[in-house]
Amino acid sequence: MDYVNAFWIGGLICALVQILLDRTKLMPGRIMVLLVCSGAVLGALQIYEPFLKFAGAGASVPLLGFGNVLWKGVKEAVDSHGFIGIFMGGFKASAVGISAALIFGYLASLIFEPKMKK
């Protein structure tokens, strides 16, 4: 059942984003920022954790999950380091995911020989 929940929650998030892209004049970059900020706000309101337990990877993989990770990192860093934690918490919490994306993106570019669009 975990796979089913992850599939339909992730699909619902993607469908809602597609509706925003099709029905509004919002640019993709703004929608991505909206998703990240929504994840952070839902984390701050302590709504995201129960949602994450129910949906699993369907909630943790999209940009909502990234916003929540940033929020948790900033909260932990502020609790332990004070004001300076605002600036270092998000970087510490998301460093592994960002590093993995860069490394795997680079490896894929070596394997598949990317070409510029004409």
From TrEMBL:
This is Stage V sporulation protein AE. Coiled coil: none annotated. It comes from the Bacteria. It comes from Extibacter muris. Keywords: Membrane, Transmembrane, Transmembrane helix. It holds the Pfam family SpoVAC_SpoVAEB. The gene is spoVAE. InterPro entries: Spore_V_AE, SpoVA. The chain crosses the membrane at residues 6-24, 31-48, 83-112. NCBIfam families: spore_V_AE.
